[in-house]
Structures are given as C-alpha cells and as structure tokens.
Specification:
179 residues; alpha+beta; 2 domains; 4-stranded antiparallel β-sheet; two-stranded antiparallel sheet; elongated
Length: 179
C-alpha cells in the first residue's frame, strides 16, 4: 500500500505498468481543484498475471483493516502519553481494569509499560529516545479513566474503518475488471 499525493487527473482505478497492476482507492480532493490523495495497492505480474474483481475487493478491504489496526495500536494518546494498544496490551489493560472493579480498587496499584518515547537521531546519526514509559494506576478512578478512554478510542477507530469499507462504490471496479 502506498498513499499518493498527486494530480487529480492521475487517479485511475486500475492500471498496469510493465511489472504490476496498480489499484487505486480512497480518493479525496485536497481542496485546490488540482491535487488529491488516494491509496494504491500493487499486484505484481510475476505473482498474478491478471487480477479479478474479487482480488481487488479483498485487497482493499484487507488494506483498510490493516490501517485500522495500525491506527489502534499506535495512535492512542492518554494524558499526553503515546500508548501502545497491541492486542496483548488491550487484554492486559482489560484484565487489570476488571480486577480493579471487582475488588473495588484493592488490586491497585498496578504498573504497566504503556508506551515509549519517540525515537529520534542526533547529528551523528545515533539513535535517541525509545525509552519505555511506565504508568502506575493508583486509584480506581485513574484506571477507569484510562480504560474508558482507550475503549472509546478503539471503538472510534473500528467505526471509522467500517465506514470506509461501507462507503466504497464497487461498481466502477466491477466495470473495469470485466473479463
């Protein structure tokens, strides 16, 4: 997948070059009547000599699902802290939250590595940052605030992904890919 910023006239649903099929989707005008953004997916001819409508539909849906998952995992910010919401972390946060609720906070405090500082590079190219960020949940209110905001963020991301998939007009792809 590749996000493209290009001239509106360059947007073509399905095209091919000498080595691949290029499928575009997610077209959005930038607002200047000249430029737009969209995503491109590539099918290499060595692996697939032709592409079908179902190939294209599956690839677009998979791409949206993958971008949604990526946004969930590394896009959540809580109290100015970037939080890593991997599936494992989501499970661990939920378990700690549920236990804290069931015990009326007696299971607290609990500490989690919730993220890491951004990686940067100094003038000599040496990596800086990437240090773990830990947070100790001391109170039921603290862990409840965290968990409810994380859950709301995940739900928002999932809804946006479903909306993107539901808004795709598949008819033009069917027309272009008739064989």
């Amino acid at each position: 997948m590749n996000k493209v910023f290009g001239i509106i006239s360059d947007y073509i649903l399905v095209k091919e070059d000498t080595i691949r099929w290029i499928v575009s989707y997610g077209y959005q005008e930038v607002g200047d009547d000249v430029n737009a953004t969209w995503y491109e997916l590539y099918f290499y001819k060595k692996q697939k000599s032709y592409i079908s409508f179902q190939d294209v539909k599956n690839a677009i849906i998979d791409d949206i699902d993958n971008r949604t998952t990526s946004t969930i995992i590394d896009g959540f910010i809580w109290n100015n802290i970037p939080v890593w919401l991997s599936t494992e972390n989501q499970f661990n946060f939920k378990a700690a939250y549920d236990l804290a609720l069931q015990t009326n906070g007696a299971s607290l405090p609990v500490t989690f590595k919730i993220g890491q500082t951004p990686k940067t590079y100094d003038e000599e190219g040496k990596e800086q940052g990437g240090e773990p960020i830990y947070h100790t949940f001391e109170t039921l209110e603290d862990i409840s605030d965290f968990y409810t905001k994380a859950f709301a963020y995940i739900n928002k991301c999932l809804n946006e992904g479903w909306q993107k998939k539901d808004s795709i007009d598949w008819k033009p792809y069917e027309e272009v890919l008739k064989t």
